[in-house]
Amino acid sequence: MKVTVFGIGYVGLVQAAVLAEAGHHVCCVDIDQGKIDGLKQGIIPIYEPGLEALVKKGTREGRLLFTTDAALGVGFGELQFIAVGTPPDEDGSADLKYVLAVAQTIAQHMTGYKVIINKSTVPVGTADKVSAKVAQVLAERDSSLSYAVVSNPEFLKEGAAVSDCQKPDRIVIGTQDLQAEQKMRELYAPFNRNHDKVIVMDVRSAELTKYAANCMLATKISFMNEMANLAELLGADIEAVRKGIGSDPRIGYHFIYPGCGYGGSCFPKDVQALVRTAEQVGYQPQLLQSVEAVNYRQKQKLFQFINRHFKGELAGKTIALWGLAFKPNTDDMREASSRVLMESLWAAGAKVQAFDPEAQHETQRIYGDRDDLLLVDSMEAALQGADALMICTEWQPFRAPDFSYIKEQLKDAVIVDGRNLYDPAQMKAQGFAYYGIGRGESV
Ligand code: NAD
């Protein structure tokens, strides 16, 4: 099939590359000229395992095109994906200006039937707004072309986006238009061979499904962080508690890791957006408000540990920081816990010497050159001359470091571990002051 994708970010580029790999022909449209020029030369703007090879293959074999020419994009595919960003507005609700701008563009240039597919995460009712925008522009053009607006939320995880798209758990299609449903089923048939993963529902339910999924996951994290904070005060070990509850199949082991708060481009903004949506319909979403509040508090925790350890005297100290990305296997720094920590350390007069396997460029882009941030090439280099080690992201190489080397390098044998990578008893035996989450020390 011929498909156009508007918005070539984490979602759009991965989706486009995976659809092309399955044999579809995909035209990728973005307003960012630099990104499109780079992609034409095989430069992949984000880090995502397996993505580069797919993009290069799709381009080489002529199934993946890149352009900033929106008219060309609209003319290309019968299926038109909208995968642009939906960042939070000033009040936390999702800003739909990019989504509606694409809807307008499609309506301005279309010359035949189109299925307009909302892949961006958008509040309930957005499909109606997209539909109204298209109808308005077509009316201005005096055109009676037909179209359908479908909600098809994306559930990929950054860091595993390619395999999630190739082997989705479910394919949610929100539409009551049979022709559009048929086209969507045809599009996703290559990913739906083993057993039927397609779940068709009305548009509003599909839109809410995406928010409900992310809010449930965020709730699990905040719940575990609340338990961890309690465990600290009650003399319990949250890692034992985690195993104890995860063994119940009704609870399960997935997504119950305590830590230094959730980040990324989705959970923070989606929880906030659903809170605003609820308020707009006169409902007080008490649980969601607490999920957000617990997360905010959790992100302060690592700084509180280190500040207390150094008795509030952080000025002039150098902190080695392992992990900057909001989670492993990505370079995404949006809402990362490391940012809250670094900004607090800087405000207290400390310097940060940081290493991340993939997010160094992104960190440099966000913070620029500053005297109190040194981005280094290795875990070991981050330790040199540092007073303490802090960990924000559970990258695989951080799990089994050479502790005697760490101890040799640090001026003060202290580790603040935001991801519970190490065993507190072992750390104590090696002579470290060790702060984990929910494992003894409280703040
Ligand atoms: P992103 O910021 O990485 O990419 C968005 C892209 O859209 C940018 O390249 C931008 O230049 C482009 N764009 C903006 N306006 C445009 C226009 N008028 N025409 C063409 N391109 C335009 O965003 P993302 O992380 O890919 O997220 C996109 C959507 O998918 C959001 O709604 C997000 O909530 C949702 N989502 C994201 C993830 C994730 O893990 N990142 C997962 C599921 C869903």
TrEMBL record:
The keyword Oxidoreductase applies. It catalyses: UDP-alpha-D-glucose + 2 NAD(+) + H2O = UDP-alpha-D-glucuronate + 2 NADH + 3 H(+). Substrate binds at residues 155-158, 210, 255-259, 263, 327. Belongs to the UDP-glucose/GDP-mannose dehydrogenase family. Pathway: Nucleotide-sugar biosynthesis; UDP-alpha-D-glucuronate biosynthesis; UDP-alpha-D-glucuronate from UDP-alpha-D-glucose: step 1/1. GO terms for biological process: polysaccharide biosynthetic process; UDP-glucuronate biosynthetic process. Its EC number is 1.1.1.22. The active site is at 266 (nucleophile). The keyword Transferase does not apply. Gene3D superfamilies: Cytochrome c1, transmembrane anchor, C-terminal, NAD(P)-binding Rossmann-like Domain. GO terms for molecular function: NAD binding; UDP-glucose 6-dehydrogenase activity. Residues 320-424 form the UDP-glucose/GDP-mannose dehydrogenase C-terminal domain. Keywords: NAD, Oxidoreductase. This is UDP-glucose 6-dehydrogenase. It comes from Gallaecimonas xiamenensis 3-C-1. It is an enzyme of class 1 (oxidoreductase).
